[in-house]
Amino acid sequence: AQTVTQSQPEMSVQEAETVTLSCTYDTSESDYYLFWYKQPPSRQMILVIRQEAYKQQNATENRFSVNFQKAAKSFSLKISDSQLGDAAMYFCAYRSYSGGGADGLTFGKGTHLIIQP
Amino acid sequence: DVKVTQSSRYLVKRTGEKVFLECVQDMDHENMFWYRQDPGLGLRLIYFSYDVKMKEKGDIPEGYSVSREKKERFSLILESASTNQTSMYLCASSRHAPPFEQFFGPGTRLTVL
Predict the structure, then answer these.
(1) Per-residue DSSP letters for A59-100?
(2) H helices of chain B, where?
(3) Under the phi-then-psi rule, with left for phi > 0, alpha for psi from -120 to 50, and beta for the rest, what region is A43?
(4) From the list B44, B50, B99, which residue is nearest A50 (CB)?
(5) How far is A1 from chain B (nearest CA, A)?
(6) How far is Cα of residue B64 from the mean position of the Cα atoms in its chain?
(7) What's the average model confidence in pLDDT over B41-67?
(8) Cβ pair A20, A78 in contact under 8 A
(9) Would you place residue A100 in the very low, low, confident or very high pLDDT band (cuts 50, 70, 90)?
(10) Min Cα–Cα distance to chain B from A110, Å
């Protein structure tokens, strides 16, 4: 079974600075998807960014980018120019490709990101 | 705008009651999921469904059942609620094709007394 580990229960960053959230995963598969989800205090889970394992290029979405190291099984999220609205729980998630069309996500335990004004 | 809705934001039930949590999606997604979220444990998959009347157990199905009579609706059932089922429940849906992105509802915080 796959496991996802987020080693930082909580992170704090000054507004406008850059922060990196860590995620490692364990799998024996070669094809899979990785996701970062954000859960603000409103509780609505929102997809931040995704990465297909077969793509070597790191995904980027505006201020959010990932550092995907397939050999190291590492998938960190970098948030540039942090804003107060970035304060939330961030979850890293793994999805097998071999599960076919239906399979759940395996989540890490989350990192609580605090933005200091 | 894609949308997943859940019948209640907050729910309080008594031990032994039968509890229904409803989820509806308007994106014509084939797949629907129920997760449980607990502090320090992240999200854990309870059940999922890939088609009407089809269901698959997730990682923690004990004490739960599900029903999917229509494509847009997926229900989670606690046959006899217990205090250890006090938790946040999140519903999600996705397409049956890559990239398998899941869209989540706002969650139901269930308290069992």
Answers:
(1) PEETTEEEEEETTTTEEEEEE-S--GGG-EEEEEEEEESTTT
(2) none
(3) left
(4) B99
(5) 10
(6) 10
(7) 94
(8) yes
(9) low
(10) 6
Q: What pLDDT digit, counting tens, does each position of A8-66 carry?
A: 999 999 999 999 999 999 999 888 999 999 999 888 899 999 999 988 899 999 999 99
Gap from A8 CA to chain B (nearest CA, Å): 11
pLDDT of residue B2: 67
**pLDDT band, residue B33 (cuts 50/70/90):** very high
A79, A19 Cβ separation under 8 angstroms? yes
Taking an 8 Å cut-off on Cβ atoms, the answer to whether A102 and B41 are in contact is no
Confidence of residue B1 (pLDDT cuts 50, 70, 90): low
Cβ-based neighbour number of residue B29 at 10 Å: 20
Whole-angstrom Cα distance, residue B56 to residue B62? 12
**Which positions in chain B touch A102 (Cβ < 8 Å)?**
30-31, 48-50, 56, 96
Q: What do you get for the CA distance between the two ends of chain B, in Å? A: 37
User: How far is A91 from A8, CA to CA, in rounded Å?
Assistant: 11
